[in-house]
Amino acid sequence: MSDVRLGIVGVGIMGSCHARNIKHIANARLTAICDIDKSKADAIAGEVGCKAYYDATTLIESGEIDAVLIATPHYFHTTIGIQALKKGLHVLVEKPISVHKADCQRLIAAHTNQKQVFVAMFMTRTVPLYRKIRQLVSGGELGKLVRVNWILTNWFRSAAYYASSDWRATWKGEGGGILLNQLPHNLDQIQWICGMPSRVTGFCSLGKWHEIEVEDEVTAYLEYPNGATGVLVASTGEAPGTNRLEICGERGKLVMENDQLTFIRNEVEMSKFCKTTPELFAGPPAWTISIPIGTVGNQHNIIIQNFVDAIRNPGTPLIAAAEEGIHSVELANAILYSSMIKKPVDLPLNAEAYERHLKKLIRESGFEKKTRKVSGKVDVTKSFR
Questions:
Q1: Is residue 380 part of a domain?
Q2: What is the per-residue DSSP string for 235-290?
Q3: Does 30 reside within a domain?
Q4: What is the pTM of this model?
Q5: CATH code for the domain in which residue 150 is found
């Protein structure tokens, strides 16, 4: 098969980054980009040497591309994704795959031809650190899951960040805040490693640290079918922040912090030790193992390369099938919904009820967004801490 002809819809911060990196993808070439901002589209097209379009439909119908990467504001992931799938194009969609569960279901339902490759940009699945954690948990090294705690307060964002686009951090334009923008990767990791909880209780603060109408600080309590529990704490307003993940099982505990992974391994399962020891205050003996972790290259490029490889070689295992993207969206929706109705929410989430709730937020919003133009090229690598 000849090179895959790629198109990109949306050349904002992430889309322009992808456009500049396609040259590093084997057996692929960027033939066209699209953005409703004509000057932006022309500038990026001129820089990378491809054709510019100013309307997604025109690009999708052009015959110039075999596959499309969608990097637009979130709500358009659904509509443009459905349109591209119906046209027969292969689709790679940025996170989140949709704003809410009902739209996820609509997008996934449009993927009727399994010969079309449909992928989500969950690039943290390529990180050796997370792959090792998943291997240890799914392989049974921790035994039965007991507890998961993740402190994610290192997603600091400035007022300038939120003011950089009129759609950002609004119910109408983005559909949420930290849960829909910064945390999709982390929520994907939680369900990828530990599975989906059966109930969530959310505590979200709207515009606590920034002049926005959506959530910028979140605490969530997770309950799992086997009785395990979890706590997620996240903020875009705390500095210096913390990124610490603990996963505890019957056989020990994994601790991830500062790009280091430690396994504290019980010599005897804790419940067995509890029932059999004659000691009043003893705990099971354990040893501590520092697990070496490899390095990873450009995470986004790995996902794009996997996408291209799967198009050229059907049957290539996908790192992040887009259908799996519904889980992180469902978790985000459930946490926010729980916070607003002030009670726990059982999963699976009632998609129609949440969609109605979100539309009500949009309809009743009186928030006026203040924006300011971004000057100079944005260093997107600073986003990933």
A1: no
A2: ESS-SS--EEEEEEETTEEEEEETTEEEEEEESS-HHHHHHH---SS----EEEEE
A3: yes
A4: 0.95
A5: 3.30.360.10
